[in-house]
Amino acid sequence: MNLHWALKTFEELSNVELYKILQLRSSVFVVEQNCAFQDMDDNDQGSWHLCAWHNNELVAYTRLLPPGASYTEASIGRVVNSKSARGKSIGKELMQRSIEGIYTLFGRTAIKIGAQLYLKKFYESFGFKQVSDIYLEDDIEHIKMLLA
Questions:
Q1: Which residue of 83, 104, 123, 135 is 20 to 30 Å from 94, comparing CA positions?
Q2: CA distance 76 to 135
Q3: Are β-strands 140-147 and 135-137 bridged in parallel, bridged antiparallel, or unpaired?
Q4: For 23-37, what is the mean pLDDT?
């Protein structure tokens, strides 16, 4: 799959790009995972948005938050792949680019994430370590993880 990657501030996103981001997040987090939650949490405006596009379709996305936005540390959130991107190692590239993006934007700082428990091994493959007990968020088991 030939991808075009873009990293933009909220202000740099076009209306169409923002719509596609919210559409992908909603289709996975709300519809697929059956979670009623407030996705638009006022963190998008101060974040950077990493998007992977294939033929004008958004296939992968993360939100890069500066230190102090969600945690004391920088953070990667709203990690999502479209159904068409799954099983093609795009998630690995997405996370690697997200980590590199954090380092480029905010320096070699620690990165904290709130991860769905079933993805623990995936995040450990990038060096993240579990730093919390399991907790429920939207009825899904999560853990906090840290890349020091």
A1: 135
A2: 18
A3: antiparallel
A4: 74
Q: What is the pLDDT of residue 34?
A: 65
What is residue 37's predicted lDDT score, i.e. its pLDDT? 62
Q: What is the pTM of this model?
A: 0.90
Q: Check: CB of residue 91 under 8 Å from CB of residue 2.
A: no
Q: Which of 111, 16, 109, 130 is nearest to 70 (CA)?
A: 111
Which contacts qualify for 114-117: CB closer than 8 Å, 24 or more apart? 114/70, 114/77, 114/142, 114/143, 114/144, 114/145, 115/142, 115/143, 115/144, 115/145, 116/140, 116/141, 116/142, 117/141, 117/142, 117/143
Q: For the purposes of burial, counting CB atoms within 10 Å of the CB of 72, is it exposed (0-12), middle (13-18) or buried (19 or more)? A: exposed
- Within 10 A of 120 (CB to CB), how many other CB atoms are there? 18
Question: What count of Cα atoms within 13 Å lies in the side-chain half-sphere of residue 146?
Answer: 10
Q: Give the position of tokens 């990667």.
A: 76
**Cβ-based neighbour number of residue 64 at 10 Å:** 24
Domains belonging to the chain, first-starting first, are: 4-109 (3.40.630.30)
